[in-house]
Structure formats: C-alpha cells, structure tokens
C-alpha cells in the first residue's frame, strides 16, 4: 500500500538526518539520505556547512548524483563538483535529460564536457547543441525535445496500436501533438480523449487547436505567466516556421516561479539567488562589500546634506536628535509604495497608462499619513522639547518627506524598468537616497528658516 | 491551425486594451477582453483604476464572471462584487468547481450564499460543507473531490470500456486512483500505461504505489514543497483512515507558490498581499498608518539614544553629520543577512543544528567588512574633519555595528519563527531597531569616551 504523508515531512527528515550526522553513525545517515528525492537531497546539502556537506555527498547513491547537481544553487554545485573526480562526474551527468544537461554544462570542467560529448550519440549531441544555442532565459532552454507526435489522417485505433508498440511515453505526457507533413504544429490530442472515445473515431475529430504554441524565443518569465494564467500542464514549442521543436512541462515552470521569487527577495538586498548560505567567509565578504560600498556612497551624500546645516545643529542640538526620525519614516513609507509598484511591474499591471493615476493616489495617501503622523510627532516633540516652532517644523518636514517618498516609490522603479534595469534589484538604494537626502534637507532647512531668524 | 505566441503577449494585450479604453470605443474593448482567459482578465482588472475597472467588468462575458472573481485579490474582488446585483452573482458562481466556490464563499453577501446553496443538489452542498470544514491553508481546502477511481480486481480492457462509457474525465486527470472496497487509497494507474499496455493486462500489474497520499490536514506550504521537490502533477488526498477524499493538481500549487512570493515581498513592507493597487485613498491610508506608527515608535527609541549624548554632539557637531552613516550601514548589512536567513527558513534549511555555524560565519564576514569599510570611512573622515580620533571612533563603531547587525540578522528571524511569528513579516522592524540603536550608541558612546576626555 502507498505511503501517506501526515505532517511536515521535510522539516522532520532534516532533523532526523542532522541528529544522525551529529552522532557520527554514517549507516543510518546513508539510509535516510537515500529515501529522499534528488531535490530533497539538494535542499539538505544546501543546509549543511562544508564539512558535513562533503560527508553526506559521499553517501548519496551515485545514480542520483546528476539530478542532485541539477537541483542545487550554482555556488553549492561548484562545491559538490570540486569533491568529485572526472570519471564520477561523467557517469553522473551522461544520463541526464538534454534540458538538465544544458543547465549544468557551464559549470563542468572542460575535460568532463569533452568526455560527456564523446559518450553521446550524434543525435543527442546535436540536440544538446541546439538547446544550448537558445538564450538562457527563453522557451528554447526550457523545452524538452522528447515529444510524441501523430498525423491527422488516422484513427484512434491506429494511434492506440502505435502507442502499445512504442511502450513508455516521456514523463508528464498528457497530450500527443498533431503535426503536418512538414512537421508543423497543428494542435494536440488529450490522452483522455483517446481513452474515452470510440476506437474508430478519426483523429481529426479529436484535435484541440485551442492550445497555442510558444515561440522558441519567448522569455521564460512570459512562459511562466502563460502557464499560470491558463492552468497549462504542458505546451508545445515551435520555431519561426511553426515547426514543432519540443514541449515545456509545468514542473520546469514551477522551478522558474520559485527562482523568480528568490531572485526578487535576495536581489533587493544586493545578493545573488545562487548564493550558498555557507559560502566561504572571504568570498561572502567580497560579494557583500560591493553592495555596502554603494550604500556607503549614498550615506555620504546624505551626510553632506546634514553638514550644510552644521551651524544650525550647533545652535539647536535637538535637531540632531530628531532628524533620523524624519529621514527614517520617509524610508519606511517609500518602501511600502515600492513593494506595491514592484509587484505591479512584475505582473505587467503598471504601465504608462496608469502611472499618473497611481502617483496621484499615492501622493494623497502620503499627504494624509503625513498630516496624521505629523500631528502625533508634533505633540510628542512639544512635550519633549517644549518648542512650538520645532513641533511645527518637524510635522511639516515629515509630511513633505512622505510625499517625496511616495513620488520616488512610484517613479524610481518605473524609470529603472524603462532604462532596462530590474526594478526589484536597484530600486531600494535610490529610494532611500531620496528619502534620506529629502528628510534631512526639509527638516534642517525648515528649522534654519523658521527657528534661527 | 493553432495560434502561436511569439512575443510577450500579456504586456502587449494590456497596452492595446488600455489604448482602446482611452479612445472610449467600447466595441473593440469588449472584443479584446473576451479573447483573454479569466486569469488574464483578472490581471487586467487589477491594473485599472476604479472607474475604468467598472466599465471593463461590465463588458466581460457573464460566463467568465465566476472564474474572474476567483483570480483576483480580495480587495479587487470586493469592488467587483459591489458592482453586481445578487442575480448576476448567483449566476456567476453557481457553476464553479467546489474548491473555487469554497475560496469565494466568504466574500459573498449572505443572501447570495443562500441562493447558491439552494441551487445546488444535496451531494454538492455536502461536498462544499466538507471542504469548508478544513483549515484554510490545508490540503483539504486545495483538493477537488472529483476523482476517477478503479478497483484492483479488473483488467485494462474493462477499465477502458468503463472510461468510454463515462465520457469526459475531470480536468488535468493524469492518473486513475485504485481504491479498496472500503474506499481506501492503494495506489494509482497512469493514463499512459492504460494506453501502452495490452488490453488483457490485469490492473494490479499496473498499480504504481510510489505516489504517496497527502493527509487532509497537511499545510498548503508543505504541499507546495512536495509538489516542487518531486515534480508531481497531481496527488491524492486521504483522511485519517486513508480513505480517498480527492486530489490536488499542480495548477493550484502554482497559485500557492505565487501567493507565497507576494506574501513575503509585500509582508516585509507591512502590506497585505490582497492589497488593491488602486484601493480607495482613505482605506490605504488607514492600513499603512498601523505599520508607520510602529516604525515611529522604534524611531523614537533610536532618537532617545541620541538624546543621551546631546551634550557630546553640542561639543562636536561633526558627530551629528556622521552618525546616520554608522546606523544606516548597519541596517544595510543586516538586511543582507536577514534575506539569506528568511530564504533558509522558508526552505527548511535553517534549524537549531546549524544556527551556531551560521552565526559564526556571518560574524566573521561582518568583522572583515567592518574592517575594510571602516578603513575607507576613517580615511574619508580624516580628510574631511582632520581629526585622527574621530576617524578611529567611526571605524570602530562601524565594525561593532556590522557585527551586531549580523547577529541580529541571524537571531531575529529564527527567534520570531520559534515564537510562532512569520519571520518574513516582522524581522526588518526589529533588525533596524537594533542597528539604529546600536549604531548611535556605539558611535556617540565611543566619541564621548575617546574625544571628550
């Protein structure tokens, strides 16, 4: 009888494994590891520090090695490949599907690539070269060339006999593709309809031509959007002449969607989604330094604004105490607008046609929030510093900064996108530069004008 | 012949529609809208401000109304439902699948729910009640009770005849489920194997018992993880006695994964993933005020630290100029650590067994970055303010703050998770509180000790 999953299996298995590893008894570790799927093994390896990672990697069934390499991030993959000798590597990758092999090939040593190519027959070698010729983030790289095709001029009976003769179908086959004599895609036949229709039914009565084909150059992001908007399980891929090249299945699309989410979450902090949690200290330091150096530059920009008002602060030290509040609140409010905009841009919901409406809405929200929070802030400052002028200045500065923050929150990501940059990655640096500079400038500037006459 | 998609269709169609809308000619708008899938129409409606949204909603084919409502966020759904009269609503939702109807039911007016329940037959009404009895984020709410089952004691031939008699199968059926007399799940049969095996083959030779069943109470997050780790297309759901209740298909899992990503991205900015980009100004203001008020509280905490050192700043105004740099850089460095931790926690890769190793690694990375950036910062400050003491103080304060930031970046999310909170949502507020307070305290504290003797 089949197994039943009752609780959160992943977390429990990782805990069991980690206990077994700590106890140093490798027998139970090996048994546990080899009950996992390659993706789960990959997840486990990513959660282990380098020493333990090597030990567990040595215990994985060699048959799974290739699939595990496909399922880990590039950094971790590199560390695993470094642990293998060339023969092991060749054995691990030579039986992979063409699309998986294409993903790995750039991370393999040249000698291993040569060996793998030599071990392939000519047809597969040509297929691999073809897949590698497409852009990395395109439908061409996602597709698997292994498809089952039929012609229009036949019957269910003949197709059933052909399938019995052929034996096993490629994984996740839910449709057969109908092609013309010149191998052009015409439509598809659901396996379901072969099963539920009479054997004498002509195939051309069963063709579903509602399923569009995807051009081989369409971007992976668009492929993911189409699959999720239409609940597709698989879709055919064609070249410029509508010739059928392969098919994309939903399991690869799920990987793209997960990857996009990680790319956004880590990218916003200036990190690469391939980053290994346990990457060597020197490498991690070097990578983060770049991002932090850019931020140091923008911090100096803000500091130089404060420096312009050094004389004012010298006269009224309360300004130094309160100025981070105005700048920081702008950053928080702007981040909210930014989050909505980045989602809207990713979903294709924000464009030139609605930016003005969005800007107007966000400006009004910021104005109202500025007035409400400004009132609270003014009252607290009045009690604290007993200066009505200072209260007035901070409330006005906060309101102005929230409106600038909203404006930057709308305009920064859309401008970056128009300039060809990924708005999810660079927007926050620009936004906080605006909110810091404007926060310090409005607060200290207004204070200079109003309080030091 | 089937259509071919060559370019990024979504964006282009939205642009065309928006142009047609602006021109005010509703005929072309209607034609364009009704070439879209319900999910695409939902996406379009979300991208329109309230006025245009009402116009386009009125043009959607009433047959698609129900599916469109399923595909939009709760805020937008509410605005669409407000535009419909009860009869339209009943007609829109009464033909939905049980799982979709269960999603909608809470947003419908009571009179409409009564009407819909009345229009259903008893079996469907009981099914709906059953689905609604499961937790909102559980396998039970994701499953569709519509499954095709067979018994073990039969042959391919008999099953094929049964399927022909039955006619159409439920959407995305790739397997039939094999059950016992007491309706317990035993395994599954691929449609593929029915097609490729001989008609006389006994069914029990074709059973695949490798596919585990999912317990009805397993969390939606775990369901998503299992589907993506194992490349499943569908999986059976069973109750505590292993009785088959329904099946979950990958298209619903794709929706969960997208939802999780939005939840994380918007949640980190204190927003709800159901937020309408064009929600009314007053409502948006009210919602954001909560988040901003919490941030105002933490900003006052940081300001009160600065206030302790007012006398020091009074003597050396350069401290006010430089203090935001130390605090801000801590925030940036901590955010990087936080992003890695939140991903690790979401993937189940971070647990008690490796926190210490992670903390030690991040502390060393922070120390090295602190020394490197501290050196740069010290040199700039030396040239700017010509004070070796100040240079030394800011470099030391930066290093200390980066190490605190790394510590907070590791410990804050894991502590929140252990306390039962979602680390993706609240971590950043706690983190920036630590980095602001520590940044101001170490810099101004060291300056008081070293420079004002």
Automatic annotation (TrEMBL), chains A, B:
Protein's organism: Lysobacter hankyongensis
Name the record gives this protein: Magnesium transporter MgtE
Coiled coil: none
Quaternary data: Homodimer.
Subcellular location: Cell membrane; Membrane
Cited InterPro entries: CBS_dom, CBS_dom_sf, Mg_transptr_MgtE_intracell_dom, MgtE_N_sf, MgtE_transporter, SLC41_membr_dom, SLC41_membr_dom_sf
Residue ranges of domain Magnesium transporter MgtE intracellular in the record: 36-139
Primary location class: membrane
